[in-house]
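Colleagues,

Please find the record for the two-part complex below.
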Amino acid sequence: MKNSLLGMIFVCLLSSCAYDYDMGDSFIDEPNRLVVNSFLNPNHPMDIYFYTTLKMDSGYWFKAANGVRVLLKEDETILYDAICPDTLLHLDYYPVTGKNYTIEAVLTGYETITAATSIPKTISCEAKVEKVKQFYWNDYRVDLSAFQFPPANEESLWITAYKVFKEDEISQCHTIYVNNILIDKVNQEVGLDETLGSITHNSFMRIKNKNLPKLDKIQFFPGINYEQMQVQIKLIAASKEYDQYNRSLYQQQNMIIYDDDISSVFFQPVQVYSNIRNGLGIFAGWNEVNYFLDIPE
Amino acid sequence: MKHLFSFILLIFSCFELSAQLIAREDSLAVDSLNKVINLSEIVVHARNKNIDSRGLGNMRINMKQLRVSPLFFGERDIIKTLQFLPGVSAGMEGSSQLNIRGGTNDQTLYLMDDVPVYNQNHTFGFFSMFNSDALQSADIYKGGIPSVYGDRLSGVAAISLKDGDFNQYKHSLSLGLLAGTAASEGPILKDKLSYLFTARRSFLDLLYNGVMALASEGGEGMAMIAFYDVNGKLSWKINPKSKLSWQIYTGYDDMYGLNKVSKDYEKYSEKAGFGWKTTMTSLRFTSQLNPGLFLSSTLYYTQLNNFNNFKSEMNYEGVKNTLENNTSSLLHEIGWRNSLEHKLNDATTLTYGLEATRQIYTPNYMYKIINSNKTTYDAAGLKLHTVSASVYDEYRYQDWLFSAGIRAALYNNTEKTKFVVEPRLKINRYIGEKNKLMLAYDRMHQPVHSINEMNYNVRQDFWIPFNETILPTSQQISLGWKNYTTRDLTFSVEAYWKQMENLIMIKNMENYLDFHSDYETGKGKSMGAELMVEYSKNKINAWLSYTLSQSKRQFEGKFYPFKYDAPHDISAFGSYIIRQKGKNVNTLSLNLQYKTGYPYYVPEVGYPSMGLSALPDAYDMINNAGVIDYIPAYPNVRLKNYFRTDINFTMEQPMKHGSRTWQFSLLNATARQNPYAVYKKDGKYKAFVLIPFLPSISFTRNF
């Protein structure tokens, strides 16, 4: 009897729950907006996507936008000044490191949007992978050191790693064991690996701008398989816009509640960064350096 | 002729006669009595009130109230009781915040025996750091704030610790659902020197870790909550008119995961978590220098350490390695607070205040320790020096009481110095014996603020001093009418209008701290009317409060409702002694609260994202990164109206030595689904309910 009573109390304690919710009337009438999405990278030709949000009886949705008049500039040079016939503006032109880019887009019935970004200089380092003894087995550790940063800029560093298999099969390392105080905790998770430690980062490591000068080396275990031929390390120099957009997007996605339990006590609305004035989306520059490291025998 | 004398009307303030009244109030009251009144007979009526409306914007809660207030996770909590007062908002359910008259929690000055407190939370704020066994009373000031108080825009919560008993020993042990408390007080030198000691500790983590330790090889631990607090106080009656007291508080909160492995050939433990540590100590001297001169002087140190910490210790085949990574936000403050009350004559009392503080902030203190070798990465500090002086004159003329004060403060953040002057005014007009009209004006400035983004649920409070010349300011006008209908029933109505300027909205906390960018300055406005009815007679103690209010913010030129704006807020409390036989007392109490739902941000619009810097399958927990939920810049909906019924039953039973108390509570007895958070999942809106139904139990043994 006593055990049942105690059990009931704890069930009640932990019975925080969720239910379907009718959100009621909204205070605000959201205007339809133009959405512009583009990441500018010197290794890729320019692709700019256009959409519009759309108010419908059942709520809001979005659709592809055609006929947007676009004025695209690289510093003071006009790259494109015409009506884009499609939802995607593709230019066989590669953005240039260090240049500034602005866009102005006009679509009838929508507010004119503007946005600006720049392409940061690359961040490089010395990279190697080696087999190290981890207690009673061996594992592969990636060592990054001797980082080279462009001086006095606003960029942050994002690092991702990929497993490269035979026949060009590639998959991203999503559990990165690393324990470095300079890495942002935004995607830090606590797991358990008795040899590697318990701190993992979900798919990327972000080092914010202010911590870059302090960064001397990073050692991490990306979970390399024996079947792999190589490990690819990508060093992303992120403009302020790219950095804030991706960080806040991760935060919003990570806030999605999966278990409807007491952990939801931490939920709160997260706004995703946008640098599109009068509109939505992102127009952000980034740069990259890739290292393809052979897995040692 | 027999005169019915009421303390309330004579000294214009509602004192409760109690053996625990602090010496200062006791002696002043009697002193006033001797000089002003010359009556043949006096009947003093001691009002048995647990909640005391003491004047315009000022209320006091006595600790007796907590004995019959519903428990929260088995804990009695003074902050939870204060949250039911008119004009005070708790914020989200389960918090330990006091958001006063449209202000935020960081705009409330928390004082414990005159020492500032910078984080009053335990365990996500589910309950506060104030251990009820150590408390004497709690005062809240919403308006008509005495000029000795400053540095916050919206109000003051002044918590008083009791002195240890000077004559007899008293001990108690309490056990709730999450924690146990031990308290002891008594004389060290009878009638000269006393001590008070309380300690509270969570026990779920201890039990769990104990079980883990017994397991042969350990394993992966689950997330744990741990907290403790310790209060100590020594009080020394130097002579009948002077007292010296020393108090110390230390509190700790940790939400962590612990892994442990213990095998023959390897042992290791890892602990990762976050939390905060609060430490305060003070030396306080009070003295009746002469019959008209009372001095109070407090020298204090207060500290807050918010930490995010990882520690590991590995021992493999005799080789030991240790690692610690720590990121902290530190706050240290040393201060000296003085007040001198000078009674010039029967009609005039002057109160002088002088205060100086030195505050050091390290918002991003990072270090790692590998096998005792420590490397510090970032220890850049911010400093704030404050000096303030105040004078407050209480002048009584016929049926009028004028209280005019001025507070001047100098704030220096090492880059800029700001000099501010804050006039304060309070006028009371007595109409007959049963009515009092009140008017107050307050001007306040705030040199420090906590740094949060759009946080409804704050886990930790990080503080920094004001930047550049942006010093938040508020002005408030309050009007009040209090009616002493009978000696058992009083009611009061207060109305206020408050304006705040130079408020800061942080858009990106990281950039705000690193580069002092990504923020907006704006304004706030709030106005409202508060009704409070108190009834206390024989076995019944009850009060009812209603707040009608509107609170707004203006940023980037747009007005929108403040996140805790609740136009209608009704609270009611009633307790009834069901059975009383000697010291055997059974009390039933009921708490009701109804309020308009808070403004909230719900995504209505979705639009395509560019994806994260990864391949689509790389995110374990993320499967919908293709669509961004557009969260508007301003609240777009109101949550459903909030209603909660709490029931409490307290049984106090005498024992051969001392007594025992059982307390049973049921929170949200009607199991109403009050939304705590609203989010979009699988294309539907969902609401999360924090407290669907929460029974609590507490046992206390006094001896």
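Residues 1-46 of chain B form one domain.

Comments are welcome before we finalize the supplementary table.
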